[in-house]
Amino acid sequence: MQNVHSHAWDQQLHFDPQTVRETDLSRGYPLDLTVPFETFVEEMAPFERVAVFGMKARLNGYWVPDQFIAEFVARAPDKLVGFASCDPTQDGYMEELIEAVERLGLRGLKMGPMYAGFDPRDPRCDPVYGYCQRHGVPILFHSGTTFNRAAPLGLTRPWLFDDVAIRYPELRMVLAHVGHPFCEECLVVIRKHPHVYADISALYYRPWQFYNILIAAQEYRVTHKLMFGTDYPFATSRESIEGLRNANHVIGDSPLPRVSGETIEGILERDSFALLGIG
Ligand SMILES: [Zn+2]
C-alpha cells in the first residue's frame, strides 16, 4: 500500500497562533498537529511508500520550510518521499522550489491555492508549472474546502485545475480530497485529463458523502484515477483504511448501489508513485 498524502510539521514553529486555534474545527475537537518522527513512522507502518509534505501559505499562517521536510524524510529514505511546498504570492518562490528539488532532493510539490490566496490559473504559477512539467515533479494541490476562515472558497473549485491541465498536459497533478464537497466537479476534471488524479484522504469520516463520492466515481468510470492518502495527522492510517473498506456500511442492507470490492482494493493497491512518475 502507498499513501500519497501526509503532513509533517511542528505547530509551534510552523503555524501562526490563530491557525493553531482554527484547527480545532477540522474534526470538531482540539488536535495537536505536531508530528514527532517516531510517531509518524509507527503510524505509517501499513505503507511501503509515503508522500510527506508541509505547507507554505502565508495568508493562513502556514510556513513549513522545505529543509524541515528534507531532514524529516532523510531519516527513512526508502519509505518517505518528500514534497516541497510553494506559495507563489511570496517573493523568492521559484528560487526556493529549485533549491528544494535540485539541492534538497524533494520529489514532488504541494500547493494550497485557497490557503495561500491565489487562483490556480494565476500567471505567477506558470513558472512553477513549467518547471514541474519539465522536471517530472508532480504537484499535489489542496482542493475543496477547509476550516481556515481567510481561505477563499472561490480559489479551490476543482474546475479551476482543468485550465491548468489543458495548458500543461504532461504535468502530473493530484487534486486532494476529491475536492470535497465539490466532488463531482473534481471527478469530471480527472476524467478529462490522463495525468490528473484525485486522492481520497480525509473523507471517510463523513460516511454518507464518502459513499456517494465512490459511487459517482464508479458511474463516471474514474476509480482508476483515485489514490489512497490519509492526510495524517488529521486522520490515522488504520481509520482511513477501515473507513474505505467499510464504505458500504452507511447503506446497510438497502438496495442502493454498492461500492465494489474492485474499487476499494484497487485504490488500496494502486502504484500511485509510478503514476506520478516517481516510481
Ligand atoms: Zn492535507
Describe the protein's architecture and organization.
- This protein starts with a strand and ends with a helix.
- The chain is globular.
- The mean pLDDT is 96.
- With 279 residues, it is of the alpha/beta class.
- Strand 5, helix 6 and strand 6 form a beta-alpha-beta unit.
- The strands form two sheets. The protein has an eight-stranded parallel sheet with strand order 1-2-5-6-7-8-9-10. It has a two-stranded antiparallel sheet with strand order 3-4.
- It has one domain: Alpha-Beta Barrel (TIM Barrel).
- Zinc ion binds next to strand 1.
Outline of the structure:
The chain is an alpha/beta fold and 279 residues long. It has helices at 11-14, 17-22, 24-27, 37-43, 66-73, 93-102, 113-116, 126-135, 160-167, 183-192, 207-219, 237-245, 261-269, 272-275, and strands at 2-7, 49-53, 56-57, 62-63, 80-85, 108-111, 139-141, 173-175, 196-199, 226-227.
